[in-house]
DNA sequence: CTGCTAAATCGGACTTATACGATATAATGG
DNA sequence: CCATTATATCGTATAAGTCCGATTTAGCAG
């Protein structure tokens, strides 16, 4: 027999927060993007070309992945002449960690 | 000119840990699965049918998503008669939070 | 303005993920 | 053993993601 259990607690997460979270999870659901993020953790301020040299994929592919990481909030890119310099987006990452902590109060 | 910056730090993450992390990110990269997880946070111990009633998708689809969430480590299912009772996998979630903290030491 | 370097975007083949209905499995009650 | 209830799995159509080479955009030096 199906008995719907009572909610044991509430969970407030606005739809924009949920969308943000979903985007951040989606961005890191790809092994190449996780590798790029790992590389940027140990090599902050790298340019696209450094990342291309470090990975076995084409330049255009890396560029697409960087866009996903930028759009989702994990990294920030700043133009330095003809190159683009990438760093972690510390504010968004701190937000992510905080939200995960709030959602999973174990 | 491309100058490869020095690594500013190390990041030790075994390949099995990385795979685990990737699987957990991948699992929550889908809006239906995020919704299921949210429901299980507020309604621990629900059975599949409760989740099916709560979402606008077919039973077979929910069952597939539950499998992904189980395989990735977010939830645990225990058989209770003909039904399956789902809860968060607190140990794995704690591991996830810890790893995220270790990786992003901001 | 021209040439050079770095990165981004486009177009397309190919792979993977998601959804559904139909069917199979599994426990329980009569 | 048969019917019922609850899930899980299968087959498959459609949608989304990934990759590459080719091209475009953008900054800078001469």
Shape of chain A: elongated
Q: What amount of the residues of chain A lies in strands?
A: 5-15%
Oligomer designation: homodimer
Per DSSP E runs of 2 or more residues, the count of β-strands of chain A stands at 3
**Radius of gyration of chain A, CA atoms, in whole angstroms:** 18 Å
Helical coverage of chain A, percent range: 55-70%
Residue windows where pLDDT falls under 50 for at least 5 positions of chain A: none
Tally of separate helices of chain A: 5
CATH topology of chain A: Arc Repressor Mutant, subunit A
Annotated CATH architecture of chain A: Orthogonal Bundle
Order of helices and strands of chain A: HHEHHEEH
Largest sheet of chain A: 3 strands, antiparallel
* Greatest interface by residues involved: A-B, 42 and 42 residues
Distance N to C terminus of chain A: 29 Å
How many structurally independent domains of chain A?
1
CATH C-level of chain A: Mainly Alpha
The residue-averaged pLDDT of chain A reads 95
- Derived from helix and strand composition plus strand pairing, the structural class of chain A reads alpha+beta
Task: Describe the strand arrangement of the main beta sheet of chain A, using strand numbers.
Answer: 1-3-2
